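Example: Transposase fora.
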Amino acid sequence: MLTRKQLVSDGLDAGPVTLQGHLAPRGLPVPSTSTIRRILGHHGLITPQPRKRPRSSYHRFAAEQPNECWQSDFTHWTLADGIDVEILNWLDDHSRYLLCCVAYRRVGGPDVVASFTATAAHYGLPASTLTDNGSVYTSRFTHGHNDFERLLASLSVTQKNGHPGHPQTQGKIERFHQTLKRWLAARPRPATLADLQHLLDAFRTIYNTARAHRAHPGRLTPEQAYLARPKATPTGNPHAKFRIRHDTIDQFGKLTLRHASRLHHLGIGRPHAGTPALILITTHTVTVISKTGHHVLSSHTIDPDKNYWRNQNKNPGRWPGNL
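Written out as structure tokens, the predicted fold is:
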């Protein structure tokens, strides 16, 4: 029972299927999951859940390819001083690969756009996204479109939203949040947001590479499953005026950008000197996003007649106007 005790102590899943996966690489005889379950029950290590629905009763829907659908949601955690913070995640539906896991004081619309943009710049665009109906993802119930919706439309990424009052639609990421919180609960509360982010980075590595996921035939890890098949892409043509560029903010807190054969200077701010950045260029705006913190550093209005485009953000993190 040493393996199981260690898994529980580390805040990781320790069920029969997981234990079976840990025994196989050690060259040990591998009993069936029913045998493992019986042994655990004999030692009083299984908590009865009489109200839990049997797995066979669920209708499971999984994307056929990586990047066919990304699920996103955020959950809460508490720092050592009692401050409540939020963790925003992007999860690949096919492989369960954790694409992005970032801590914020409060998740806002600009954070969703920034995290999606940074993730897409690294892994490629998904064919679709699946989220709930939170205002950071959609304004569908207020008869308008928010910046995330406009961004997806410009990229020909299909946006899917769950039905109100039916969280099962985002079941994969809801279950993932349980796994994440169990792992965090096994560790001391982080003192700062940066400390929490260090924990999340470590968890992301473990979740993606060190544990096989029961949803995959052959017991692949999420990373193995994500890399095993060709990736899906958006079916339409992305907006001709949309592009992403990688750069690093110079020692003076500025970036340069060529637009319409003319070089322009973007003022970001000296505190951000040396920061690796993504530059999101759309029809009328330029947005600079931190590649490390996944948050908006500055926004600029495209003005072909001016050499210097100042930061339009009066409040840091505010997402600029329409695409």
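The first strand starts at residue 70 and ends at 78.
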